[in-house]
Amino acid sequence: MKKVILRFNLCMIILMLLTGCLWAGTFSYTQDFSGSNGAQPVNWVVGYGSLSIQNNTYKAPSTDTEHLSYYNGAGSNLWSNYTASLWVYKTTSWTTNAKIDFLDTTGIAFRVQNSNNYYFAALRKLAHMYDGRLCIYKVTPEGSDLIGSVKSRYPLNSYYQDAWFKITVELNGNQITARFVEQGYEWDIIGEVTVTDDSYSNGTAGIYSISVNDGAGGYHSADDLTVNGTTIENCDDVVAQYSPAGDFNNDCRVDFKDAASLANSWLNCILPGNQECSTPWNN
User: Fold this and answer.
1) What is the DSSP letter of 217?
2) Which of 105, 137, 215, 225 has the fewest CB within 10 Å, making it most exposed?
3) Which has the higher per-residue pLDDT, 74 or 179?
């Protein structure tokens, strides 16, 4: 009997040590799109359309085609709460034709799970409205839905042509905040919008673009994608739902402390009706 108990205890200890633990961690990623013309950044995936480096920036030609590309490095699919930013630029004008009015845009994709499930934030002119807007979209297999937008303080269409703008998104749980500024005036927030959505809680970052053919060789560019955040906040946030089996002291890891806790309680029982067991409810 003692040999059986000893072997069982040893097996339990080994099992708990192999179960693993949850760690809090931060991450940082930057992509400046430097490289040879026509090349692709390392560990990037093309969801649809194309991805091309031109003159050390991302470039999308005006071909009436949607483009989605995103970083696919190890662990990026687990990114959850983070801040991401991207510089965008376009030569096309929203006043050229009706198609450009409501389609033409480039922006930052975030919490990208695959080519059918992600969010993106972009500057866009909506349905022939006079003003440019910062918009947040949710993409599903059924299509894209506008879930939030804000009118810019500078409504003229020409303002968004031939100039660099920085779009930043902050993700905290189900709250999404997007804002944008112009290069050289980073202290001046032109527009900011916050929405709440529970669809996607994690995923990587990238670029969404659709550059409409303006008949004049126009294009969209993007540069300097940066992402900073946490993969898991801390043990208290995850222990209730994700703590591994055998984590008796709820410290998000299974180790000899848990083995000692198990050993101290080994063969204890409170089975009602069994005279060999204790009855704490009678004390």
Assistant:
1) -
2) 215
3) 179
* Structure-block tokens of residue 114: 């695959």
Please give the helix or strand (H or E) that residue 261 lies within, else none: helix 256-264
* Confidence at residue 128, expressed as pLDDT on a 0 to 100 scale: 52
Cα→Cα distances 95→87, 131, 211, 222, Å: 22, 11, 14, 21
What pairs with residue 15 in β-bridges?
none
| Residue 12 sits in the same domain as residue 99 | no
The whole-angstrom separation of Cα 158 and Cα 151 is: 15
Residue 12: domain span: 1-23+239-259
- Structure pTM? 0.72
Question: For the chain, how far is it from start to end, CA to CA, in angstroms?
Answer: 32
Closest residue by Cα to residue 104 from 181, 210, 255, 24: 210
Q: Is 207 found in the same domain as 81?
A: yes
What are the residues facing 119 on neighbouring strands? 110, 138
